[in-house]
Amino acid sequence: MTNKESLRRHLLQLDNRGYKAYKDIQGNYDFSEFRLIIDYVQGDPFASPSKFRVRVPPNIAQIPRELFNSRSREIALRDYLTRQFDKAAHSISSKRGTGKSGLIAVTRLGQEVLERTSAFITPPTPPYQGGEKISISPPYQGGEKISISPPYQGGEKISIFPPYQGGEKISISPPYQGGELGGVELRFIVGLPAGGRSILGRQAAEMLCEDIPQIVSQSLEYANLNAAECRRHVETVEDADWLRQQLAENGLVAFVADGSILPRRTGVDNSPLLNNAVAFQSPPSLKVEFNCPNRGRISGMGIPAGITLIVGGGYHGKSTLLRAIELGVYNRIPGDGREFVVTNPAAVKIRAEDGRSVAGVDISPFINHLPQGRDTAQFYTENASGSTSQAANIIEALEVERMPVLLVDEDTAATNFMIRDRRMQELIAKDKEPITPFIDKVRQLYADYGVSTILVMGGSGDYFDVADTVIALDNFQAYNVTKKAKEIAKNYSISRAAEGGENFGKITQRVPVPASLDPSRGRRNVRVKVRDVDELAFGTEEIDLGAVEQIVDSGQLRAIAAAMVYAKQQYMDGKRTLSEIIDLVMADIDARGMDILSPFPEGDFAMFRGLELAAAINRLRSLSVVAK
Ligand code: ADP
Ligand code: MG
To answer: The ATPase of the ABC class N-terminal domain covers which part of the protein (predicted)?
Structure first.
């Protein structure tokens, strides 16, 4: 390993040489305050930027342990440090030549606090740091001293001389509790500077040897951070996680805190609307109260399990409320306005998505007797209709998640999938209509599978009959109108015939055919590529994820792409079902982190759910399956 000064000299020597000569600087440098690791060097100034890491040791970063002593806090802290690094990099870095020259940046960040591979707290818990006693059972008889080498960092092997013959397990006791201070690993990208295609050595030396140390010092040394803000970030996320955990045992599927600001600034800007936003207030009869670990008492609207309708006139805030609930599966940064809108983690937005492909999904609970005798127990199409796509979206969610909560907005639903009224039943006989509308299935979903639904429906009162709770929005204010809606349902009978049969029907599991997922376009190299948050290139295919509304971050899409490759390589064997494969992949990530998804340290993966991984696989046009 070489140090900062030798890197500086090296960069100055490279001045004016062809860009490829930068490849030489790949490696590991001791910057005394931290270590700089150059993992990958770009091939030219216009190519995707170089990949760097810094490792700031605990004695320099000095992050207090209380900021990362729970899983929620650790994820929040990593997110916070990423944001601080991003901010410092923005203010210090500047364009220094052609292409991406001069760029220093981290992954793109939105309103959500997600687990990311951009930052890690080191040492990760619970590594053995030396000093603690190791106990061996039965007691080691060798007499020789036991040496641990290299210092045990968790995961490294422990060697004992002479070799221990007992065969029993070695336990480290007492369990390591971690030091009092944390260090940081931060991953970022750098555009190594060039004039035309020749190296700008002096600029590179400034960037790497002056700017980076300054960014690191400003953003990764606790002494230079805003302690109160950092604490608030961590505590907000911990409270939100805690609230989400309270939902199930309180019979709720979502909670919207009083005072929340739900509307966004514009259709393309997810920051909160500042002027004229009406803060959310729970109707008294739906109000629940919790005592959060950090902020203490909080009140808001609890949406009970079952079937909930959100009604109200056009433009009165229905979709805005549902969108906040959709994203309540994630945590938000302080100041977002929706920090304490939390939703059952298995909540899934369901919408119509005509044009998508569907691979062998059993949509027969909703759709039967299609023209030309098309099979709906194993429904294949390259071009789904509104109703068949919406049916497939529901069944696919049920396939991977035992008890999802369905979220539906009339704005993006297929009308003929949602309702079929009395007059239409009269005109078009049941045996001429392939679709059993959602209204006749929604109660069965709850009764048979415990699946709750929250539905925005301003246009049809037919749903009053099947709803447990009806919330009206009027000038952005919420009211509980359940009683009134039920009375109306009684007094104005629609006398339509229920068409749903006895039960919802069976959920058929599918087994993906491994050869139908090919990330390598028939060659050796895997090709996955991500554009923004809604398109993924997988092998020769483009997967359109624009309608998968709970993918909110391009880092999620990058991780999903890598997880698809991982799933194929590790678990697709032509026998396992898609849901088994997803469970195995998610369990591996849970146990070992997202780094298992890539051969090199990736800085721009963000955590996703099994539901979204399944959504990406399900939209692969080449996918073929066999029924289990
Ligand atoms: P709906 O689905 O009922 O037709 P939307 O949710 O689409 O209504 O909201 C209509 C408009 O009102 C949007 O521009 C939205 O940003 C804004 N809006 C929603 N909720 C609020 C609120 N609480 N305060 C102020 N404006 C809001
Ligand atoms: Mg709407």
So the answer is: 5-121, 182-222
CA distance 485 to 333: 37
Task: Output the pTM of the full model.
Answer: 0.90
pLDDT at position 521: 65
Q: What is the pLDDT of residue 525?
A: 59
How high is the pLDDT of residue 127? 41
pLDDT at 96: 87
Q: In the chain, what is the straight-line distance between the N-terminal and C-terminal CA atoms, in Å?
A: 54
Residue 153 neighbours by CB under 8 Å, 6+ apart = 123, 127, 128
Residues 189, 52 contacting (CB under 8 angstroms) = yes
| 550 Cβ below 6 A of ligand 1 | no
From 310, 315, 473, 475, mutation site for ligand 1 pocket: most ligand atoms within 8 A of C-beta: 315
Dihedral through CA 595, CA 597, CA 603, CA 604, nearest 10?
-140
pLDDT along the chain (628 residues), means of 10: 92 97 96 95 93 94 92 96 97 88 92 97 54 49 44 43 46 49 94 94 97 98 98 98 97 98 94 95 98 97 98 96 98 98 98 97 95 92 97 98 96 96 91 94 97 95 96 98 96 89 94 92 66 82 93 94 95 97 96 91 96 97 92
Under a CB-based contact definition with an 8 Å cutoff, are residues 476 and 317 in contact?
Answer: yes
Q: What single DSSP character describes residue 281?
A: -
User: Residue 127 is encoded by which pair of tokens?
Assistant: 């590594």
The two three-digit tokens of residue 424, written as one number? 């239409």
pLDDT at 199: 96
**For ligand 1, mutation pick of 262, 320, 476 (most atoms within 8 Å of CB):** 320
Q: Do 50 and 43 touch, CB atoms closer than 8 A?
A: no
Q: Whose CA is nearest to atom 7 of ligand 1?
A: 319
Pocket lining: 457 vs ligand 1, CB cutoff 6 Å:
no
| Any ligand 1 atom below 6 A from CB of 317 | yes
User: What are the strands, taking DSSP E only, across 293-413?
Assistant: 296-304, 307-312, 331-332, 341-343, 347-350, 358-361, 379-381, 405-409
Contact of 234 with 81, CB cutoff 8 Å: no
DSSP-derived 3-state class of residue 47:
coil
Ligand nearest to the CA of 311: 1
Distance from the alpha carbon of residue 200 to the mean position of ligand 1, in angstroms? 51
Please state the length of the chain: 628
| Ligand 1 proximity of 603 Cβ (cutoff 6 Å) | no
Contact criterion met (CB below 8 Å) for 517 and 576: no
Residue with the two structure tokens 């980076």: 212
The CA-atom distances, in angstroms, between 112 and each of 116, 118, 369, 497 are 11, 14, 43, 44
pLDDT of residue 161: 43
130 CA to centre of ligand 1 in angstroms: 58
Ligand 1 atom, smallest distance to 261 CA: 23
- DSSP H helices, 201-353, are 201-206, 212-220, 227-249, 318-326
Strands of 535-538's sheet in order across: 528-531, 535-538, 541-544
Residue 414, SS3 per DSSP: coil
Closest ligand to C-alpha of residue 325 is 1
Q: Quick one: pLDDT at residue 144?
A: 42
Ligand nearest to the CA of 323: 1
